[in-house]
């Protein structure tokens, strides 16, 4: 497919008739269209899709508006609404080795409160009414809408394709629609329809009506399941947005001290309990201090007093012994026989007297405190009490120190609790976000149940329909030809199924190589991604580093995710043979200078046989323009009149035709 010309008449910001020559030639595949933000670059992309697909077009400016409302608002504000707007697109395709030239004109205008739309298709210069009436079906043969979304895209929005789930749907759609896998599946479906028509060929009218009713019910059940699934996706998307909003509010709430505010009563109760525990510990310490514990501050005095008690006890014992010895010595002298001489008696008496004198000297004290006789026992009891009280005091001191630290921590936490007036709005916003998410989740659960019920009903009706058809085939097939048709159709379907699986594996394998090569060619960090795999079962994309470890796409920067998404689209285009034009809006939005150079040098000139770039002056600047120049077929600048709110198309690009419109 080769785009030749785009004409806009009073469409969007484009006043009057504006025309762009889009034709390219070998070696110069790029048409560069420059415009500042708000000048109408995206409007050009919308115009191409609108003229081709009408109400099914995925125009960025449509939003949730109805198709009629969108068309009404797309008429230039300075134009007469009754004259309306018009878009014309000229392109050529090759059919059976012959080039056919198409001109598709979509126009609309208001008539009173009604909007009237017209679509005219010219082929090789001749108006074709049949083709004009059946254009929605014919354009799907030329360029299916699902495939068009892979070649007409907004560079700032394709980063989402780096998400594994989003990439899976794109890969599945592209492989099936763009690479011919869907054709195989359609053949299998056609063969099944053929077999079913044969089964119905000799059916009596009552049975036919019954089965047709079942088929209608089956289709209605399928549509209901599809609607429920679409609704489920919408609700899930809303839940994701509400979840993200709640997480944002939670972070704001937490940064403002909301978590502490929620725990205020708990913190106050905890602080009070700690304070009570500290007070009890200090009371216990004071109680210990009122006993003998302070005596530990007088260790020297206690030792001296203990020594004095020992001396007084020894003196008392000696005094008692001296009295006993006097009686003993007198008795001993009386027991001496008469034969003992006086000298011996005198010497013995002297000896005993000397011994008593020594003992009397020992009993004499320089100073007496008149301590009680059991003073030593009291000192022993005091030592035990002091040891016990000292151990307990140490425990209490350690516990009270720890409790005091905990009390300080509790005071700091309480000091960090924000005032209720300061956090009131955040509390309300957070509660509102929580309530909204809870409502959405309830709705999601209900929708999931409804979807499961719709799926089950669809499967049940389908099984009943299949059984009825099989029963009818078994009972009414009467000729061998009918059996042969059914048998060979089933064989062909089996063969096509195997062929489709092999074709899918082949395309996926080629796509893996093409996407990886494209990504490495565009990346500044050449060694970041070492391998890339696509699961044929669910079309999910997996990245791996040089060690074979998987890489989460979330770890990539915004620019790297955009390059990965571009590489996916580029790889698909390579595998498909680059036979379709690419229209890229805002191609370099989030990329740094090195990545921009890589895209300009390595991607744009090779993205396809025809590439339309819709860029701002900051994306394709003077330096990058010089790099693109050898590949340029045409350049245009969208000039916006801020006073009239209209845009005109001028030939040439900034820095090539002067720079009066550069921001």
Can I get a quick summary?
The protein is of the alpha/beta class.
Structure write-up:
By secondary structure, this protein is α/β, with parallel strands linked by helices. Among the domains are: about 160-200 and about 490-580, no CATH class; about 270-415, no CATH class. Helices cover about 60% and strands about 15% of the residues. A 6-stranded antiparallel sheet has the order 2-1-4-5-6-7. Strands 8-12-13-3-14-15 form a 6-stranded mixed sheet. A 3-stranded antiparallel sheet has the order 9-10-11. Helix 7 crosses helix 14. It is elongated, with a radius of gyration of 50 Å. About 25% of the residues are buried. The model is unreliable at about 475-480 (pLDDT under 50).
Topology:
Layout (H helix, E strand, L loop, with lengths): L1 E10 L2 E8 L8 E6 L5 H13 L13 H8 L10 E11 L2 E14 L2 E10 L2 E2 L1 H5 L1 H8 L2 H7 E3 L9 H14 L3 H20 L4 H51 L2 H5 L1 H26 L9 H36 L7 H22 L11 H41 L4 H57 L3 H43 L8 E4 L6 E4 L5 E2 L6 H19 L5 E4 L7 H11 L7 E5 L6 H7 L3 E10 L4 E6 L12
Parallel strand pairs: 3-13, 3-14, 8-12, 12-13
Antiparallel strand pairs: 1-2, 1-4, 4-5, 5-6, 6-7, 9-10, 10-11, 14-15
Helix pairs in contact: 7-14, 7-15, 8-14, 10-13, 11-12, 15-16
| Biggest sheet character | 6 strands, antiparallel
Helical content (DSSP H or I, runs of 4+): 55-70%
Strand % is 5-15%
Terminal Cα span? 35 Å
The tally of helices reads: 18
Q: Which regions have little confidence, pLDDT < 50, spanning 5+ residues? A: 475-479
Strand order of the largest sheet: 2-1-4-5-6-7
Radius of gyration: 50 Å
Structural class: alpha/beta
**Judging from the principal axes of the Cα atoms, what is the shape?**
elongated
Number of strands: 15
- What number is the mean pLDDT? 79
